[in-house]
Write a structure and sequence with these properties.
Layout: E1 9-23, E2 26-34, E3 45-49, H1 54-66, E4 72-79, H2 87-96, H3 98-101, H4 106-116, E5 120-127, E6 141-148, H5 159-176, E7 188-189, H6 190-201, H7 207-216, E8 220-225, E9 236-240
Parallel strand pairs: 1-5
Antiparallel strand pairs: 1-2, 1-3, 2-6, 4-5, 7-9, 8-9
Length: about 240
């Protein structure tokens, strides 16, 4: 495998992906733990080839981490502060893993210089049905797991800020883009829709008012009732109208 500096990447441009799922009435975020000693958690990230569109690069990174092809994706912000650097994180990782990394060779020095330059990072958020995702580790990962939005591990660099910005953007998008349904299975109840909206917004809604609001959007198709053994009280199932 070629080193990062030898591959045909655009220099000093990266992509950081916030992959949102939903379960147990809260948003979840898919986060890998880096395969070195120490507490190093980072967003699924990658670089952009010279001949690759930015959105295609993000789709590639997401596909490698989730195992699914069709993913709802939004670019939301570029992170480019002048002091944005991975040097402090990488120095700490090297210090804690000197026995594994060994002496700094000339090739190591080249990679270190390449990786610790200031990078402009393009942030994307993705919305997925967790039931369809099979989290995929890369060679750099010790593990990759879902974490509740309120129970995140300590992230490297500015990755916690990136998650917070992704959440703020998603909160502003749920009415404008009507995209929260991408977190649900193909069919769902109205209560499940309300639970997702409440998890994203952090607010509670009156059931009758919420149902009227959602139905007024005219984006749902009502199906048969959900089988519960009590037909009269069973809720209707809905699906998002694709046309």
């Amino acid at each position: 495998m070629k080193s990062l500096s030898q591959q045909n990447y655009i220099p000093q441009v990266s992509i950081d992906c916030v992959i949102f799922g939903y379960s147990e009435q809260q948003l979840q975020v898919l986060i890998p733990k880096i395969n070195f000693k120490g507490d190093f958690w980072a967003l699924p990230s990658g670089f952009v080839f010279q001949d690759e569109d930015m959105d295609n690069a993000a789709q590639r990174i997401l596909r490698e981490r989730t195992g699914i092809e069709s993913i709802y994706l939004e670019q939301f912000k570029v992170f480019g502060r002048a002091n944005r650097s991975s040097k402090a994180f990488l120095d700490k990782l090297i210090q804690q893993n000197f026995d594994k990394l060994g002496e700094k060779s000339a090739s190591h020095a080249t990679e270190y210089d390449w990786f610790t330059k200031r990078f402009l990072s393009v942030g994307y958020y993705a919305l997925v049905d967790m039931n369809k995702v099979v989290p995929q580790k890369t060679d750099l990962d010790e593990s990759i797991e879902w974490y509740g939005i309120h129970d995140l591990p300590q992230m490297i660099m500015d990755h916690e800020e990136i998650i917070n910005e992704a959440l703020k953007t998603l909160q502003s998008h749920i009415d404008e883009k009507i995209n929260a349904f991408n977190l649900l299975p193909d069919t769902f109840t109205m209560k499940e829709v309300q639970d997702v909206y409440e998890a994203i917004s952090g607010k509670s809604f009156v059931r009758t008012n919420f149902q009227k609001m959602i139905l007024s959007l005219d984006v749902l198709e009502r199906l048969e009732k959900k089988f519960t053994g009590a037909a009269n009280k069973a809720p209707y199932l809905y699906r998002f109208r694709k046309d």
